[in-house]
Amino acid sequence: MDWQAILTSLPSLGDGLVATLQLCFVAALCALLWGTVLAALLMRASPFWLRVLNLYSGLTLALPLLVVIYLLYFVLPEYDITLSSPVVGVLALTLYYAPYIAQVIRSAIEALPKGQWEACRVLGLSRSEQLRDVVLPQTLPQMLSPLVGLMIGLIKDSALLSIVSVQEFMYAAKQAISDTYAPLEIYLTVALCYWLLNSAIDWLARGLESRMTRYRRATQH
Amino acid sequence: MGLDQQVVAALPELGHGLLMTLLLTVLASLVSVVMGQLGCFLQLRRAWVWRTIGRLYVSLMRGTPAIVQLFVVFFTLPRLGLGGQPMLAAVIAIGLNSGAYVAEILRVNRSLVTRGQLEAARTLGLSRFLTWWYVINPQVMRASLPMLVNEFTILLKTTPLASVVALTELTYAGQIVIARTYEATQVLLLVAAGYLLIAMPLIAAARRLEAKRRLA
Q: CB of A194 within 8 A of CB of B65?
């Protein structure tokens, strides 16, 4: 092991990690937003639009993310849409992850008994009150674990963006390797960082989930 | 929109890439099932050393990007005297990655095998291996099949990563053709169609198997 190579490239790797965090934060927000919109559309679309939406989510099930990234990266400029590579990255991750997110949201909401919606209406709750006081408190804990799983997937997949030269963690790693010629050491360090990051997210989500479902345990006593 | 002449001429090249992708998917799936069985077996051992190794394997594979894993394998192999073989590196890396997910699938379905069955097997004098082979594995594999097929679709979607270690599978073949013809849109759509060609039957099979399992 070439420890010196790891030590000398730590600062630049740190910058890369920060860039990955920023990129993933933006991409995750966009994906959650677009996924929520998709879920709302899926629940009330006309049969024609439902087909279109299903085709879209079917494509994300079948196509590799790398191919989607290449498509956006190479095809959009041919139609005179030139986006910078980080924007292409965020766009690719958003488009790719939103259908999965929509699926999670939709199945959690549809699992809610119909009587609850009827009860809300009888009580005269407004739409926002329904969501805030009745629907979300029950569905959020259910969505949390699959959504966090998807977010971890998004963080891992963001490493692919280095291929279209988005300057994130993997890109910084490649730079560090061309400086130090120690690929294995650098990649192992990178792997360790991703692992720690994702394990921390997983751990936090578990804590949050047990907090959110506290009321269930409280009623059991 | 017709295909460009040069792209038509490159079709055999893309076809070869498709075959390589298929080969990589099949080989990596085999590694994945073996690793999944091993990971599941280790996690369910009573001794904490084995259990920790099993859990660490699953956690590491699920917590790091597949592309990093591929690079780590690719740069480790030369130290073992197996350098310069992108196919080997890709099969090992993608197989190891997917194996962690297979281990989780198998572990969930392992609970289908009741204690009574294991006691019965022991009473009949079956060894540990024979119990696994005749009693546990057939039931677990049958119950896991829809999820496994689904996992192989996900595995297929990680195979383009092999292009970063210059394995001429479908995506890399596409890149080579693009570099020559400058017809990015046409070639990439063909590449996408190639993936759909493999993925659609897999997705359909997973759905059918799942429906069948629910009926049973």
A: yes
Tell me if B200 and A184 make a contact (CB, 8 A cut-off). no
Distance from CA of A210 to the nearest CA of B (A): 21
Per DSSP, helices labelled H in A46-135 are 47-62, 65-78, 85-110, 114-122, 127-129
> Residue B44 belongs to what domain range?
5-215
Q: Is B185 on the interface with A (CB under 8 A)?
A: yes
Q: Which residue of A has its CA nearest to B56?
A: A195
Residue B161 sits in a domain whose CATH number is 1.10.3720.10
Domain range for residue A215? 3-220
| CA separation for the pair B134, B82 (Å, rounded) | 37
pLDDT (tens, 9 = 90+) of chain B, 216 residues, equals 578 888 888 999 999 999 999 999 999 999 999 999 999 999 988 899 999 999 999 999 999 999 999 999 999 999 999 888 999 999 999 999 999 999 999 999 998 899 999 999 999 999 988 998 999 999 999 999 999 999 999 999 999 999 999 999 999 999 999 999 988 999 999 999 999 999 999 999 999 998 988 877
Contacts of B174 (CB under 8 A, 6+ apart): A70, B14, B17, B187, B188, B190, B191
Nearest CB to A62 within list B76, B184, B195: B195
Q: Is the CB of residue B184 less than 8 Å away from at least one CB of chain A? A: yes
- Contact yes or no for A67 and B160 at CB 8 A: yes
Report chain B residues whose CB lies below 8 A from the CB of A157. Answer: 65
ipTM, two decimals: 0.90
> Which position has the token pair 């740190």?
A14
